[in-house]
Structure formats: structure tokens, C-alpha cells
Amino acid sequence: MDEAKSLEEATGGGAEAGVRSHGERTVRALFAILACQGYAFAILGVGAPFIAKTFALDQSGIAKMYAWISLNSIGALILSRMADRVGRRRIVTLGLIMTPLCSVGAALATKAAWFIFFEVAAYSAILATFGSAIVMVAEALPIEKRSEGQGWANLAIASGGGICVVLAPALARAGMSWRWLPALAGAGIVLTPIMLRRLPESRTWEEAAERGMAKGSHIYDVFRRRYRGRTVPLIFTTLLGEASGAAVSTWIYYHAVTVTGLTPTQGSIILLVGGTLSTAGLVIGVRMAEWVGRVRTVLAMGLTGTVGVLAFYWGPPAHCGWPVLWLIVAHTWFATTGRASQVAANAAVTELFPTALRGTILGWLTLTIAFAAIGAQAAIAILAKQLGGLSNVVGWIGLLWIPSALIWGLFIDETRGLSLEAASGEIAEGAAGA
Question: What are the residues whose beta carbons fall under 8 Å from the beta carbon of 110, sequence distance 6 or more?
């Protein structure tokens, strides 16, 4: 009953019954979908030490592999653009089919090249699903509940990732291969029909499609003069922030187990406890996004989160008697601020662009994330030996969060309290890409 009450509040209890029902169905279905995709998304981060061992890769080698896998965002851009043309639900459907099939392929791969191929395809589907789901949440909820909806979406992804974190050490203790992690993601295909039956298409997109707005827009419209002032700063801040984010989030488990010398169980405890406690960041992000605005939230959280990154990757000190506790506190710090920032950023990005370009801009930002991740992983691979190890390089890259946050504060428009149409300028001209 409490869950039903929370979801009713999250979808605007004062709205008409039909609208409220649509919002509830969307939030419930997407929570389950994002949890499944969140599990698959966490595999590379949790499995890094085991994957490196299987394919006989050193620190530079595993960084190079992950840089190649970052090419998935090219596919994610194409799929995200399709979400604006053919509908959000169809892309979510495709993602729920592609992810398990490609995960099974990755689990069975005996050569690094095949593993990279299947993971590129799987992560293209995962990221496109994330983007479509974020847009659907924004379009399904009323003004005052949109940031809260993004909190639900992030919680779902984190919950799925948490299951992966728990399973990794359990498999290691049982002497079982890490390949069971992607294999279990493949088993999720049996749940796909159930989840899809419960997911309605976005009414906002359907209305835009009826007016021909989707067909009249183009993938490059986000760079036209009307939206260029929003797109260009978003790309720059994403490039810097996600280079930092990709490096920081990928090597948490690896740093704890391989660099610090903790056991796989201790590494998972750090991920699980830090990840669980950091869910408070979702609440912080929701509240701050509504109280002080999306932009100020991203700025404040981005600047303060850097402290936790440096403490984690440049620590613990050599003679620290409680290395696990040190890493838990540091991980909780930067994960909490990161979640808060993500909630506010997701709310802002979906509000800054019209219906016909809402998936498209997320696709462009996903492609930017790919270049950022490739650059970050390549820098780690190149500089790991020269700068004293992988973790030292990650710490330096983590400092990029500072200029990323400053760009948000200086150049991104505030959208708090505005309708989607008003925030994006859709009301004024009634068509995207003008």
C-alpha cells in the first residue's frame, strides 16, 4: 500500500484519473525495465578484475578493451534518434530483446574481440533504453513531479546494479566463473513480454507524431540556431563530466581488489554499502532540484563530489588501519553527490528540448559520453605506468568534474517550475527544429 501511495504521489494525485493512471503504469513498468537493464549495465564495472584475468590483460590492456567497448554510444545515438521517429516504447522493446541476447554472446565469447563485439551491441541497447525511459518519465509526470520521477528511474538502475554487485563475490566464493553474470542477464528475456505488456507509449510523443512533428525533425536540428546555445554547452560539460564519470565508476571494484589488495568480498561490500547509502543522493537531488533549481544542484554536487573521488583513488593511506571503511566513506561521498547531480541533470536535459528532439539530444549526449569514455580509458592505458598506476590517473581525470560543473552553472538555462512546452520553447513556435 505504501508503494502504491508513493507512486500515486509521484504521478500527481491531483491530476485527472486517466492521466494519473497512465503515469502510474509508466513509472511501474519502467522501474522493472530499468532494474533489469541496470543489472546488465553494472557487469563491466563489477567484472573488471575477472574479465582482465580471463583474457590475460594488464591494467593498460583492460583499459584499452573498455575504450573499444565505449563505441557502443554510436549505436545508442542511432537508436535514440529512432525513439523520436518511431516511438519510445519500440526502442525500449528492442533494447529488452537485444540486451539479453548480446549478454549471452558475451558470456560465451572465448576471444577478446568477440567479447568486445557483443558488449558494444549490448550497451548500445542498454543506453538507448535508459535514454528512452528518462524521456518517458519526463513526459508522463506533471511539472512538480518530474525530478522525482528521475529519482525513481535512477533508483531502479541502482537496484539492478546492486544485484550484480552481490552476485559477483558469491560466484567467486563458489568457484564459479564471472561469465554467469552476463548469462543471468540473458535469462531476463523471459520477463520481457510481461514488462512490455505493462508499458504504455508516451502520450506526449503520440500527440507530436499525430501533428507530424517527429517526421519533420532531423538528427541535426539540435545544432540549429534555436537550440545551439543549449546543445553546445551540454556537449562540452558532458564531455568533461563523463570522462571523469567513466573513469571513476569503472574502476571502483578494480581499485579495491587489485590495487588496494582487498578480497573480492570486501570489494563488493564497498560497492554495496556505498551504493546503498548513496541512494540518499536521489532524495537530495530531487529536493534540491525543486528547491534551488536543476542548474545549482548540478553545480554544487559536481564541485563537492571531487573530494570523494580523490579520497577513494588516492587512498587509503599506506598505514591506514581501516582501508575498507575509508573506501566505503569515500565511495559513498562521490556516489551520493553523483546521484544527486544525475537526477537534476536528467530533469533539465529532458526539459530543455521539444518532444521531437528529446530522444535525439540524449543520443547526441550518449555519443559524447562514448568519446569521453574512450578518451578517459585511453588516457588511463597510456599514462598508467608513467603516473604510478591506474588509480593515480583516475584521480587526475576525476578533477574534470570541476570545469564540467562550472559550465553547467554558467551556460545552462534553468527550467525549474516550467512545463515541458514552455521550458523547451515548444509553445512559442509549435514545431521542433525551426
Answer: none
DSSP 248-316: HHHTHHHIIIIIS---HHHHHHHHHHHHHHTTHHHHHHHHHHHHT-HHHHHHHHHHHHHHHHHHHHT-S
- Arithmetic mean of pLDDT over the chain: 87
Residue written as cell 559524447? 368
Taking only the tens place, the pLDDT of each residue in 48-86 is 888 998 999 887 788 888 888 888 888 888 898 898 988
Which of 72, 172, 50 lies closest to 377, judged by CA? 72
User: 259 with 430: CB under 8 angstroms?
Assistant: no
Supply 72's cell numbers.
557502443
Backbone dihedral region of 212: left (phi > 0), alpha (psi from -120 to 50 degrees) or beta? left
Model pTM score = 0.78
As a whole number of angstroms, the distance between CA 103 and CA 123 comes to 9
- The alpha carbon torsion through 253, 259, 263, 267 (nearest 10 deg) reads -20
pLDDT of residue 141: 87
Least confident window among 90-94, 207-211, 284-288 = 207-211
Residue 365 CA, chain-centre distance (Å), reads 11
Residues 230-256, mean pLDDT to the nearest whole number: 92
d(CA 400, CA 429): 37
Rounded Cα distance, 82 and 75, in Å: 11
Q: What is the tens place of the pLDDT at every residue in 18-45?
A: 556 677 788 888 999 999 999 999 998 8
Cβ-count burial of 417 within 10 angstroms (0-12 exposed, 13-18 middle, 19+ buried)?
exposed
Q: How many CB atoms lie within 10 A of CB 226?
A: 17
Which of helix, strand or coil describes residue 179? coil
What are the residue ranges spanned by the domains of the chain? 17-201+219-427
Say if domain 17-201+219-427 classifies as CATH 1.10.3720.10.
Answer: no
Which of 1, 3, 92, 77 minimizes the C-alpha distance to 361?
A: 77
317-349 pLDDT, tens digit per residue, is: 888 889 999 999 999 999 999 999 999 999 999
Virtual CA dihedral for 276, 281, 284, 287, nearest 10 degrees? -90
> In Å, what is the CA distance from 346 to each residue of 135, 150, 185, 191?
9, 7, 26, 27
